[in-house]
């Protein structure tokens, strides 16, 4: 069983389209995250939810909207895709957000290519 | 804001011990230090975590001096499969103002 699973693994789309990436964790964790990793391999946090509540909302264009229907799922919707959105997006989860409990478990990533 | 600084790359040979140091001068009292490993086309994977002194598990050791302004990940007797990018992360994730910042990572290359 995959602990943190993302779909799709690859996403190729045209500029201006709207797309969603889904993430599910079966670890029973309370906290989930979305990261963006660019071509230079910098890993930047975008959002974090704890028990369906948004706790981290970094400086990200409002075209990006996370949604957490329950604590096991955190989806990322992107409107009006731009070339600069091309990157690998990682979902992660942790037991809690505090101290030594925030060891994060990552999904395999979604490689988004905007043409 | 606990920003981290790591060497961009390191090279070593199979069987050697590799030490990767991370600087985090602004570490806060509640911050833990966590190291992750990332292989190409995969998500980062947890290696080890510590708060102070020394922590050891089956894959690595983590040395943290008393001032906690740096930490050193030690990989004993590396093999080719240890070739990866290693990230140092400092934070507690508790405060809503706390930021989770991965460093630029250290690209470790192991040669035969």
The separation of the N and C termini of chain A measures 33 Å
Spans of chain B with pLDDT under 50 lasting ≥5 residues? none
The average pLDDT score of chain B comes to 90
Helix content of chain A: under 10%
End-to-end separation of chain B in angstroms reads 40 Å
Structural class of chain B: mainly beta
Oligomer: heterodimer
Strand content of chain A: over 45%
Number of helices of chain B: 0
Number of strands of chain B: 10
Per DSSP, the total helix count of chain A is: 0
Written description of the protein model:
The complex is a heterodimer of chains A (115) and B (112). Chain A contains no helices and eleven strands. Helices cover 0% and strands 56% of the residues of chain A. In chain A, strands 2, 4, 5, 6, 9, 10 and 11 form a seven-stranded mixed beta sheet that branches. Chain A starts with a strand and ends with a strand. In chain A, a hairpin with a 5-residue loop joins β4 and β5 (43-50). Chain A is mostly beta strands and 115 residues long. Chain B has 112 residues and is mainly β. Chain B has no helices and ten strands. In chain B, the strands form two sheets. In chain B, strands 1, 3, 4, 8, 9 and 10 form a six-stranded mixed beta sheet that branches. The relative contact order of chain B is 0.34. Classes of the chains: A mainly beta (115), B mainly beta (112). Chains A and B meet through β4, β5, β9 and β10 of A and β3, β4, β8 and β9 of B.
